[in-house]
User: What shape does this take?
Amino acid sequence: MNLVVIGGGVGCARFVMGLREHVRRTGGRDRIDVVVNTADDWWVSGLRIAPDHDSLLYALAGVNDLTRGWGRADESERVSGELAAWGTAPAWFTLGDLDLGTHIARTAWLREGLSVSEVYRRLGARWDLGVTLHPATDAEVDTHVLLGDREPIHFQEWWVRHRAQLPATGFTQQGIEQATPSPGALDVIAAADVILVAPSNPVVSVGPVLAVPGMRQALAAASAPVVGVSGIISGSVVRGMADACLAAIGVDTSAEAVARHYGARVAGGLLDGWLVDESDAAAAAPLNAAGISTRAVPLWMRDAGTSARLAADALELADTLA
Assistant: This one.
């Protein structure tokens, strides 16, 4: 089967690792492609930084920092300190030296004229990932946060420096109106047997992918069932500050509210199916009535086994919808 995942960041990485483990345990014949959010990318010290992509790359390669949850393992930060001392990088955005090697390579290739898709291929070729990563778009569509009467700021400043504590009134992706889905993203969506929406931040990781002009149309036209996995359990985010993002766009922090935010595909939305945690089983009946086939299963991805089980549950739901 051709399995396609949409998302970005740590939650997506854990889910994709579980999907890869499930595929390995069941014979290893399925292909996995991930359409990755690019809208939290930005420029620092003349380097193009891509946090959602790199979280996936490092985790799938087995070189990620499991303690911090981001960046490379066994890091040093001497160069980042020098950049801050020279005033070319903010002191609140720390990059490890190994991580900077990735950003330097990425930027060098971009300045040579390679597309973001081509850069993804070169970065992914270093390790045996068992997964192919595709940018949602090759265009730059950085997310900025709207702050009412204040000037908008880049998402990374709001997220990392201010820890999402500044009251936001919305999010915008600069230049997204002129963007198009990357050719690789369109190809794998069209060929997919199952499309899975990862338990990523619905607003700033999944939302920008869906906002690329042509992406929703491609998903609507896909013959594959679309099954999403909630990143909200018992009214709380599993990781990060997605609750602040949801509040900014007027969506409650609940598995049911996020599913309704995505919408049922039969009604012009995204989802055919939705997995919620067993603690949120009460959401199944109203969501089923709204046209989103919903099952309650264990969602906590504590290790390879529980992550693989969650992936299997998603595929089993997709199978009933095919």
